[in-house]
Amino acid sequence: MERIRKGDSVIIIAGRDKGKRGTVLARAGTDRVVVEGVNRVKRHTKPNPMRNQPGGIVEKEMSIHISNVALYNPATQKADRIGFKVLEDGRKVRVFKSNGESVEA
Fold it and tell me: CA-CA-CA-CA torsion for 52, 29, 80, 17, nearest 10 degrees?
């Protein structure tokens, strides 16, 4: 079970985008995530008429290492660490370390 999933609201805790908030758009491998509006780069692309793709400078989000992001806790309005808890019915859920509330709620 992953600590950070697609669709989670995260805060960047290290790097040039430190302090920015965004949602996880995708997982890129086991240890990288793509966050909306973070780590934007300019990519120079050649035109490709076979794919109907124009050339030029395209700005897009690149992946960031998962150690540089932390889940956003709406109760405390801060970044928070994640732990796991097994409920009575056997389900495993993610919980915030600071207040013990469930992330899925």
Answer: -50
